[in-house]
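Form 12-C: Joint structure prediction
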Amino acid sequence: MRSEEAAVAAPTRRLPPVSRFLDEPRVAAFETFLGRQTLKEHIGAVLDCARAAQSQPAFEALLAGVLNRIEIAHGQTLQPVINATGILLHTNLGRAPFSGAAIVELQRVAGGYSNLEFDLERGARSSRYGRAVALIAAATSAEDALVVNNCAAAVLLILDTFAKAREVVVARSELIEIGGGFRLPEVLERTGAELIEVGATNKVYLHDYERALSPRTALLMRAHPSNYQISGFTQSVAPRDLVALGKRSGIPVIEDLGSGALVDLAEYGLPHERTVREAIADGLDLVTFSGDKMLGGPQAGIIAGRTTLIARLRANPLLRALRVDKLTLAALSETLRLTLSSRRDEIPFFHMVRLTPEELRARASGYTATIPGAQIVESIAYAGGGSLPQSAIDSIAVSIAPKCGADDASAALRRANPPIVARIENQRLLLDLRTIDPAQDALVIAALRAL
Ligand SMILES: *Cc1c(COP(=O)(O)O)cnc(C)c1O
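Section 2 - Result
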């Protein structure tokens, strides 16, 4: 409707009629799937756009726009996007990109059968976790391990196994909510465990935990406050002291580490984050962490710790509902193998953290040389994924002030092929180069020039 009115208002602009697009075989191919009305709406939107811009592109260009719109709205469920936000582990953008080696491994096992639960030596059924467990043990020094759907599932399985109708002691400062509605107190409640909060928001002492113990205490629990920080007048209990209390009282001490650094991040210029190996060395009985945060692998939740406790987790029927598939195990194992090798920086997360501002600046000059008005600015990138509150990484961005305004320009970039997700700061569009694959620089430059 709107397109016809606009056409009357500007009779000099001649755009091809909607019917010409509908007759085009590449559009018509979608008709049984989407219906004629939906196709007309997409065509109308592209024509409206051309009209609003007072441009008269060739039919082929308009057709490409129509096909692109259809693809974005109805194409594959997931589309690769270019992450120009500078947030390395962006939960909305799929968190950790996989290493080339992990992708090869996926291809190797995805299309056929594999020995997922089959011992080739004995010709009998085996556990699906074996190989991954050995790698987790090597990376953390834990006695045993288990892999489930994600870190939230790992916490759920532990609480369900050990704390049903019993008490779990947690410091008030660690009653976290993580993005996506994962609130520790609510997960506890779900599993039928009773939360015993100790300490004040900013301070907790060992005697607070001690006093909270009762015959019903199932676990002493620590949780990493991944996405916030309490600073100033604070007091917390060292993991080793809590472990000693657990030992004296015969109560397991567990910790939800969240990101679970397997390597010393100080090596990458980030603040040192207690590693999983250090947590195990502190004597924690069980720890949990994600596969797609600092580990740089697939979505998964890893539980590492004592053999006796892991055995009880394995025996919980809930594990059947939380278990991971062959693809997760393949990608996770390969990522762990890289982590343990000299090739760790092939994992995109580590590669991106390692990039120097000089390298980024050199690439940025390729942008400013071809995009009128573009500037090179200092930027702050973040590890992200609710992984570390203090993960600011000095970075370099290309900053532009588009004529059509930053919001419209940002929307236009999201419609590019592949879509580009940028940041807006002070009415300017910022593209942080740390998270953009250099192989895609040319695509980003072309999209920015087209603005
Ligand atoms: C991120 C995080 C989780 C949730 O991890 P998922 O793998 O996304 O389920 C749980 N606990 C902590 C402390 C976290 O940082």
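Section 3 - Comments
Residues 150-152, 178, 182, 223-224, 226, 256, 258-259, 290, 301, 386 surround pyridoxal-5'-phosphate (CB under 6 Å). The chain has 20 helices and 18 strands.
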